[in-house]
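User: Hi! Is it possible to get a structure for several chains at once, not just one? Here's what I have:
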Amino acid sequence: MSGTLASSAPGPDASAQTGVAIRVVGLVKRFGAIEAVRGIDLEVRPGEVFGFVGPNGAGKSTTIRCLLDLLRPTSGSVEVLGRRPRRDGIDVRRRIGYVPGELRLPERMTSRQLVTSVGRLRGGLDEAFVDSIAARLQLDLDRPTRDLSSGNRRKVALLLAFAPRPELLILDEPTSGLDPLMQHQFLAMVAEARDAGATVFLSSHVLGEVQRAADRVAVLRAGRIVAQGTVDELRGRARQRVEVWFAEDVEDLKRLAIPGLEDAVLDGKRLAATLSGPIDPVVAVLAQHRLASLVVEEPNLEDAFLDLYGRQP
Amino acid sequence: MKGSAVELAIGPLRQMRRSLIGWSIGLGALVAVTVAFWPAFRGSSGISEAIDQLPAGVIEAFGLAGFGTPAGFLRGNLYEFIVPLLMAVAAVAAANGLTAAEEDAGRLETYLSQPISRQSLFIGRTVALAVWLAILTASILLVQLVSDAAVGLQIDAMRVVSTVVLCGLLALLFGTLAVAVAGWLARPSVVLAIGIAIAVGGYLIAALLPLSDVLKPWSGISPWKWALGGDPLVNLAEPWRYAALLVPAVTLAALGVAGFVRRDVRAA
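Assistant: Yes, the chains can be modeled jointly so their relative placement is included. Here is the combined structure:
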């Protein structure tokens, strides 16, 4: 273990100085002929909840496993809490709580024995805190891990991740298998951890969850980040459905000249279209006409996501 | 750090408890049942005479020399082949179960995401293998000594201790070979295949090459020869034999660690 004094690498406080909890630059990871991650750049700021969104097989887990030094990047660099996982893995992992995506718990022990074992590796866990998390998740710690349902195993993994009160939570598909009530409980736990100053890196293909929990989002597709920004920005990029009922017949759509409207269909007094830009210019033009009704559907992250996902790389 | 180092060996050992009990009972029963036949065997000279009719090479290859003596009886029935082979298979299976099989199933990830190094996890599991084998060896030895006393099989206890310990070290060598393979490659089937193939191959080399005058010198490459070639039930084994098994075992374990810290951890 390195308690490096003279080192060219940033020290433990570097993340505070540079304002970055996770920095990934040009990350590429190949498995033989398969290129799972094809050049990812990513910055997660301390104290934020960062959503890492993408379909299965997009490279989310591969990226995450590089952060923990379970995988070694083919090229590019990874920095977690100001340190390099490859060199300072012990120190980095001491400050991380992790829920694996493909979750397989050690067998032939109860959850409590597993928690005790992990506690010994971490130099002790706060037992009262462990019990309070277990109670919140309605988890019976005295059952063998082998007999647990996938949802209950996920709860054990969540418990192990949250129990050390880590600076950084890296959660890979943390709610898969959880019922809606527990998903709600999970979101509350994430919010509390963030309020306590933790950074949360949340990978998911459940968009509603990310939309509710995350401050910023990166959308991953086929090993590349196709969009990155705040939830609102991403939502702003999504196409909105616009439906306008004019008070009188409009003869010619072209004469309306509304910027940003696509796939417009004019049918008598009704205009249906999708809008991919800002709504302001549209309203400006529509304001020159008498309208009976105007409906603009609020885009959600799912639409934004499908938009990006549907687009060819 | 100390607590975590202990946990990295004790934790996996706890999970291997059941297999340890199973192998101990199985091998203990084999030893006890075999020794139980000694009083009947001692009385009948027919078998010894029949063996004496066999060609000298065959007697040597199958460890049948002096079959009518306590040492020859134990060697021919137990320690020439079956006990060391089963211990080697147990060691390879245990090594695989502690490393490649766990990694392949994705069950190491929970530990590797904790503040421990790759090498300490792997060393901890290798130590667990050594302790597991030491307990198995001790239980076989205990059954052997108690059975000998029970049926009046008279043999020098030190020679029995030495023989069983050499079998344990031979098994450790094949177990650490499996560890070395697992360090570089998390494929349980490959780890088992290589470990068991080399254990069996080593026996065949030690047993069959001496049948040919040309090939006989080459039988010395087999670890079986290093362990049991001096007939330890008859002649107390030389100290170098222990070192000849232990030193390569430690080297192989180190090789496994060197591989494990360098590669990707396999996902489930």
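Chain A has twelve helices and 13 strands. Residues 254 and 264 of chain A are 10 Å apart (CA to CA).

User: Great, thank you!
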